[in-house]
Amino acid sequence: MAHLPIRLTPGASADRIDGWATDTDDRPILKVRVRARPVEGEANAALLKLMAKALGVPKSAVTLERGGQSRTKRLSIAGLSEDEAKARLTDL
Fold first, then answer.
1. What's phi and psi for 72, nearest 5 deg?
2. Closest Cα to residue 3, out of 71, 55, 41, 42?
């Protein structure tokens, strides 16, 4: 199971993955933007859908592990190793 750290920006002009960056502690974090607003979990739902499509896995394989109310989140991806998930995101 892969675990991906995400920095989510809701309310963007388009749904897109901006690529890898580092957080304030120099840890890698994936920057993602979604059009949905952070109202009633809409931005989180859009994030899960976008990541499932980008990784080529069913939506049910992507779960929000932590950060439901925060811009910094952690996703779990069932059926992929961390290396496989990062390779699929690098190929975008």
1. -95, 120
2. 55
SS3 assignment for 25-60: CCCEEEEEECCCCCCCCHHHHHHHHHHHHHHCCCHH
Q: How far apart are alpha carbons 16 and 48 in whole angstroms?
A: 12
DSSP code of residue 69: T
Region of 16 please: left (phi>0), alpha (psi -120 to 50) or beta: beta
- Each residue of 57-78: pLDDT tens digit? 999 999 999 998 999 999 999 9
pTM of this structure: 0.92
How far, in Å, CA of 57 to CA of 76, rounded? 12
pLDDT over 80 at 92, yes or no? no
The answer to whether 16 and 8 have CB atoms below 8 angstroms apart is no
